[in-house]
Amino acid sequence: MRMTILVAGLLALLTLAIGCGQGGQLAPPTPSAEGELAREQVIEHALASLSRDPEIHVDRSTTKATRMTESEADELIRQKGGPEGRRPSPEPDRPVWLVEFKGECIDFRGFGLPTLRPRQVGTYFLIVSLDGRLTSGTCVPD
Q1: Looking at the predicted structure, is the pLDDT value of residue 23 above 70?
Q2: Which helix (DSSP H) or strand (DSSP E) does residue 63 occupy?
């Protein structure tokens, strides 16, 4: 069941990405002169990207973003119950933002068709590159 919900969360994020325009995502906000987004920009961009899907409901008050390497983000997600089978990053030491927030994990059945089953509250984890690209995400039920 847990893996089904994790896969469903990824399907929801992929479905969202496909419907968000060029490159499958909302255009990220303008980064600083160093080419990086500020914490607040990362959080707003991640929430705006997810809010395009009316089935995804999040608690904005629980949102936080932490800078770390991609391998550290993967390990933290695994420690909190996330998927074990994610393909390793080709750049594990690449700095990223890990955005976390509470919300309802939605479950899709079939081949990406949005047949909803009961929702469970959980934590969304999104890995966002420093320039604002959403590179991966999952929702881990509580």
Answers
A1: no
A2: strand 58-69
